[in-house]
TrEMBL record:
<feature type="binding site">
    <location>
        <begin position="85"/>
        <end position="88"/>
    </location>
    <ligand>
        <name>AMP</name>
    </ligand>
</feature>
<dbReference type="InterPro" id="IPR033690">
    <property type="entry name" value="Adenylat_kinase_CS"/>
</dbReference>
<feature type="binding site">
    <location>
        <position position="129"/>
    </location>
    <ligand>
        <name>AMP</name>
    </ligand>
</feature>
<keyword id="KW-0418">Kinase</keyword>
<dbReference type="GO" id="GO:0004017">
    <property type="term" value="F:AMP kinase activity"/>
</dbReference>
<keyword id="KW-0963">Cytoplasm</keyword>
<dbReference type="GO" id="GO:0005524">
    <property type="term" value="F:ATP binding"/>
</dbReference>
<feature type="binding site">
    <location>
        <begin position="10"/>
        <end position="15"/>
    </location>
    <ligand>
        <name>ATP</name>
    </ligand>
</feature>
<comment type="pathway">
    <text>Purine metabolism; AMP biosynthesis via salvage pathway; AMP from ADP: step 1/1.</text>
</comment>
<keyword id="KW-0067">ATP-binding</keyword>
<dbReference type="InterPro" id="IPR000850">
    <property type="entry name" value="Adenylat/UMP-CMP_kin"/>
</dbReference>
<feature type="region of interest" description="NMP">
    <location>
        <begin position="30"/>
        <end position="59"/>
    </location>
</feature>
<feature type="binding site">
    <location>
        <position position="127"/>
    </location>
    <ligand>
        <name>ATP</name>
    </ligand>
</feature>
<feature type="binding site">
    <location>
        <position position="166"/>
    </location>
    <ligand>
        <name>ATP</name>
    </ligand>
</feature>
<dbReference type="Pfam" id="PF00406">
    <property type="entry name" value="ADK"/>
</dbReference>
<feature type="binding site">
    <location>
        <position position="36"/>
    </location>
    <ligand>
        <name>AMP</name>
    </ligand>
</feature>
<dbReference type="InterPro" id="IPR006259">
    <property type="entry name" value="Adenyl_kin_sub"/>
</dbReference>
Length: 181
């Protein structure tokens, strides 16, 4: 299965992705995690990405798309994946579509985790990641509204809307049910 996870920052995509990845036996590919790993290792990509991430802005698409393409070319991603954090703009969605086209593959679904903004702010402040201070959160929510939310219309019928408010297990159960699993 090839799935994309959408939703505002703090919607719980990463948490849900980890569970889904195990249950569906497909790798969880998170651009946020890939960036953080690069930052931790001090790679040139990490150094470049850190500036944007700390400011709550999007890392330039050229950099992000290359990183994703390389990751998707790895062997464990041959038969499916769960993409978390990419695409985040319509431009990135078009890049992903071209990539899939070239390989004669298609997306099986786009899961859209829906949750109110006050809930996501609360969750992000509670988890306390380096880029989770109030100002950065505000910027990321604005970036989500401006650049990522248009993907909801873009994907149209492929979209699987899931209410992401509730216990982790409950949200997972809703997702599995909608995936017919
Ligand atoms: P969250 O789900 O809370 O938004 P992520 O871990 O997915 O956090 O992403 C952290 C940061 O990494 C983002 O705020 C952004 O700066 C950068 N990032 C992640 N994915 C992308 C992407 N597809 N394009 C550009 N920047 C990205």
């Amino acid at each position: 299965m090839r799935l994309v996870l959408l939703g505002p920052p703090g919607a719980g995509k990463g948490t849900q992705a980890a569970i889904l990845s195990e249950k569906l036996n497909i790798p969880h590919i998170s651009t946020g995690d890939l960036f953080r790993a690069n930052i931790g290792e001090g790679t040139p990509l990490g150094v470049e990405a850190k500036e944007y991430i700390d400011a709550g802005k999007l890392v330039p698409t050229e950099v992000t798309a290359r990183m994703v393409e390389e990751r998707l070319a790895e062997q464990d991603a041959e038969n499916g994946w769960l993409l978390d954090g990419f695409p985040r703009t319509v431009e990135q969605a078009e890049i992903l579509a071209e990539l899939l086209d070239r390989q004669g593959q298609k997306l099986d679904g786009v899961i859209n985790y829906q949750v109110d903004e006050d809930v996501v702010v609360e969750r992000m402040l509670a988890r306390g990641r380096a880029d989770d201070n109030e100002e950065t959160i505000r910027t990321r929510l604005q970036v989500y509204r401006d650049e990522t939310s248009p993907l909801i219309d873009h994907y149209g019928d492929a979209l699987i809307n899931i209410d992401a408010d509730g216990e982790v297990e409950e949200v997972n159960a809703r997702t599995m049910e909608r995936l017919g699993q």
